[in-house]
Amino acid sequence: MNIAVTYVSGAGNTFTLVREGRRRFPVEVWQRLAPQLCRWTDGLLVLRKADARGVVPVLFFNPDGSTGMLCGNGARCAASIAMGERHRELTLLFADMPISAVAVEGGIRLRLPPPRIFPQERQLRLPTGDLRLWFADVGAPHVVIPIHELSSTGIHSSLEQLPVEQLGRLLRFHPAFAPTGVNVSFYTIAEDGSIQVRTYERGVEQETQACGTAAMAVALTAWSAERLHPPITILPPSRSPLRVDWEGEAPEQLQALFLEGSVEVLGTDTVEVSLEEDE
Fold first, then answer.
1. Which residues touch 142 (CB under 8 Å, ≥6 apart)?
2. The CA-based dihedral angle spanning residues 238, 240, 246, 251, taken in that order and rounded to the nearest 10 degrees
3. Closest Cα partner for 60 from 70, 73, 50?
4. How far is CA 53 from CA 8, 57, 91, 96, 271, in A?
5. Of 121, 186, 213, 271, which has the fewest Cβ atoms less than 10 A away?
């Protein structure tokens, strides 16, 4: 079976996007197809037809087939493709969340619901010492760690030299976050107030070049722990900036989160897939 795909990048986060037409598969089928369609991308986006209100449903799958979570950059990419040349704004239904999107100069800006869990400070016991970190859920669960906090575990490293995949895997699968695990981000604040971030993504199971929900979780943590104020610029490894803002003067008053960044179409292709069990 052949499936037409579009490859798209949201600030360096890469996705395989499929427009679902007359042939509409159940979620379970897309879960089985995701590993085949995401051989080099960070996730699968399935763009469904708009409903009578004009709302566009989007399914998202990690390369391992897991689903149900928010993907900020994925939502921005889906919105950009759905808008095409004719529209400047629309509403997505993504992870059962209504998400407003608007085209801005250089990319797409989303208006998202407030976090399910505002960053909470926690202590985690590791073999080399106790680690202070922050846990947040912005539609996907995240652990956020300023790199200076790693010194308590004997790690003294710049963000650039940090073994993100090794540390990220350790925390992603830590029993404290079982059974679903977490995404893991490490950050440092630059002199100009921007935040440099590296993220190990659950479901991708490696470091990615950008992560939209990580950008929001890190920005909120920096607001709480470092007294930074919005808008906050996040610089992922791709060096394509993400801008995070919000409505509300205090954590308990948050009404919405905003995520803005670039979107780029990388190309199109036709991918041969199979539903056979040995795939």
1. 135, 136, 182, 183, 184, 185, 213, 214, 217, 218
2. 30
3. 70
4. 26, 11, 9, 16, 32
5. 121
Question: What pLDDT was estimated at residue 56?
Answer: 97
8: β partners: 15, 265
**Two structure tokens written together for 254:** 């948050």
Residue 140: its pLDDT value, please?
Answer: 97
Contact 216, 257 (CB under 8 A): yes
Residue 277: the pLDDT is: 63
pLDDT digits (tens, 9 = 90+) for 106-138: 899 999 999 999 999 999 999 889 999 999 999
pLDDT of residue 106: 87
Cα 46 off chain centre by: 16
Cα–Cα distance for residue pair 88/80, rounded to 1 Å: 9
Burial zone of 228 (CB within 10 Å; 0-12 exposed, 13-18 middle, 19+ buried): middle
Q: Residue 234 corresponds to which amino acid? A: I
**What are the structural domains of the chain?**
2-113+264-272 (3.10.310.10), 117-247 (3.10.310.10)
Residues 6+ apart with CB under 8 A from 135: 117, 119, 120, 122, 141, 142, 143, 144, 182
Those residues of the chain that have pLDDT short of 50 are 279
Residue that the structure tokens 């993907």 belong to = 71
Q: What are phi and psi of 274, to 5 degrees?
A: -140, 145
